[in-house]
Amino acid sequence: MADVIALTYEISPDDFTRAGEASSDVKSKLKQVGVSPAAIRKVAIAMYEGEINMVIHAEGGKITVEISPTEIRMILADRGPGIPDIEQAMQAGWSTAPDEVRSLGFGAGMGLPNMKKYTDEMNIETTLGVGTTITMVVKI
Amino acid sequence: MTVKDAMNVLGARVLVGEEHLDREVRSACGSDMMSDVLAFSKDHSILLTGLCNPQVIRTAEMLDIVCIIFVRGKKPDETILEMARERDLVVLETGHRMFSSCGMLYAAGLHGGAI
Question: With contact defined as beta carbons under 8 Å apart, do B92 and B68 qualify?
Fold first, then answer.
């Protein structure tokens, strides 16, 4: 079996303008290893939404991306407040983001629905006051 | 149509990517909310927006958007333009409002793509 490439990123909560740098890096690495444009697009959108969420809601965290010959697995772990009601958070348009975030172009309540839409598997583990880990898989 | 066609329809000005004006565009998306753009945008798209921050460029990058048009005379700063250059994007600027810009492009044959 071929090697799995693992990439790890620390997501800083301090600077919204830098949010998306990790997704950008993953996108260019996937291009380098010859993953199809369709799969790259799905990974890029899903991870970017997740990365933005970590900056907006969770004061940063860690993203691990594992690239195998058959799938790309993204694990986004934060130490944020947790999600009280996952079903509600999954509804398109539901958002708890403050107006300040909306003025930056996010917080439309499309983040989690987009992440689900663009991935083949998505699992959310969350504990209030402890943090949230979202695992997403795109098959290639 | 090409980026140049869209530019002529709007009487827009090129800020970045003069060398890529012959690129083909097949659909467009107009929004100030980047999450909506991420949800609905198609391949070979134009993004029309009045939002002026680095996340516009990153959103375009994730979606392989061909051209960003800043509407209502919004002027992106040099940091934003430099990010666009690094990513080989075309950036245009028009004084038209969002609604008018979308209407003019739609009338010229550019549609939103099926949902």
Answer: yes
pLDDT in tens, A16-61: 888 999 999 999 999 999 999 999 999 999 999 999 999 989 988 9
**Angle value at C-alpha A18, between A97 and A77, nearest 5 degrees:** 65
Q: Does A20 touch chain B (CB under 8 A)?
A: yes
Under CATH, which architecture does the B3-107 domain have? 3-Layer(aba) Sandwich (3.40)
**What pTM was estimated for this model as a whole?**
0.91
Q: A41: Cβ–Cβ under 8 A, 6 or more apart, which residues?
A: A118, B62, B63, B64
Contact (CB<8Å) A23/B39: no
- For chain A, the C-alpha Rg in angstroms (whole number) is 14
**Domains of chain A, start order:** 5-139 (3.30.565.10)
